[in-house]
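User: For this week's homework, look closely at the record that follows, marking any run of repeated tokens, and judge whether sequence predicts the tokens.
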Amino acid sequence: MAQKVAILHTSFVFVSVEPVINDLIAEMMPDAEVLHFVDSDVLATVVREQGISQKSEDRMVHLAQAAEAAGADIIFSACSSLGPTLDAAARAVDIPVIKIDEAMAIRAATEGSRIGVLATVPTTLGPTSDLIAAKALELGREVSIEQRLAAGAFDVLMGGDREKHDALVIEQAVALAGEVDIIVLAQASMNRLADVLSERTGLVVLSSPRMGVEFLAERVSELAK
């Protein structure tokens, strides 16, 4: 029987502008039944409030509960900014909850010593850095984390100007490269630039979608046994 995978979205960008997660799931789990749960305003709220309020956390918990009520076997959170709320969501449901950047954080903490975290939305810098730091602690590794923001790039992407978005991201990645030995892209919306950035910086550039969906696919196959 096909597993039901619920994807939690906090913006329509991954449903309409950058459907990369859907494409990867279709590639790696063609038999999975995918359910989408979207709160298209919660990321905007977190950006506006410059942090995660209790109300924002409650909204993600409700989204996870709705996914469980719809019969999902596993939940996949597509948003790094709201990552910390997924711990509360995981406690509120009886099905597994996977964060998109979990596998990426483990690899960064394993391979990097000076880790650069690059984001286009300020709210992803803290959660991504904290997740990497937590994984490094679990692994017993000492790492330093350098945060860098490509200010305004996400707004430009939302307006449909991919070219300007890409130029802003590349500029910040090149500047960051001199200070770190590995770069982590804090948002899935930068995924398609990973190879270009690696070429331009000469560094390993980690992006969450493929690694995150591979991690999800492993868990789904375990559930199916």
User: Anything to note?
Assistant: The domain at 4-100+210-224 is CATH 3.40.50.1860 (Rossmann fold). The first strand starts at residue 4 and ends at 9. The chain has two domains: 4-100+210-224, 102-208.
